[in-house]
Amino acid sequence: MSTLKVHTIESAPQESKASLENSVKAFGMLPNLHGVLSEAPGVLEAYKTIHQLFSDSSFNAEELTVVWQTINVEHECHYCVPAHTAIAHMMKVDPALSEALRNNTPMPTEKLQALQDTTLSIARNRGRINDAELEAFYAAGYGQRQVLEIILGISQKVISNYTNHIANTPVDEPFQKFAWSK
Predict the structure, then answer these.
(1) Pick among 2.40.37.10, 3.40.630.30, 1.20.1290.10, 3.30.9.10: CATH of 59-178
(2) The model scores a pTM over 0.90
(3) Cα Rg, the chain, nearest whole Å
(4) pLDDT, tens digit, for every residue of 26-49?
(5) How many CB atoms lie within 10 A of CB 29?
């Protein structure tokens, strides 16, 4: 049972209505997460802005998926794992990568493994990472920019994952075929 209201465009606060209309235009539906976030217009705006900034980062589609899904699985988000599985399909990410992320099995390349390891370390250790971990990340071909962009991705996922835990957000129909639990 949801503990927070999932708004429609009609029931949402006035300040959120235009943003929700944009969500419908972008997705062809109103994602339940956006309906929940709309209760606090600034949080909805922050989430969507951070999502766009992270999507526009230096990471390619596979790397975005690794960061998003690594955090989603670590946080055990029942809503975001299926949603980002569908998003990965739309982004033409190899389904084998999605399955590895969903099942917490090794990444297909050393570079993606370094990205996953670093993302997990930053998330699990609340932003603390040791020198050896950072050097391994750099040796895999990443730099300081990507460390900061991981933090941006974590920021986005904290908003959505924590909201979904509290709200028990219902998984949208198009994502239900990708249902996931730990």
Answers:
(1) 1.20.1290.10
(2) yes
(3) 16
(4) 999 999 999 999 999 999 999 999
(5) 12
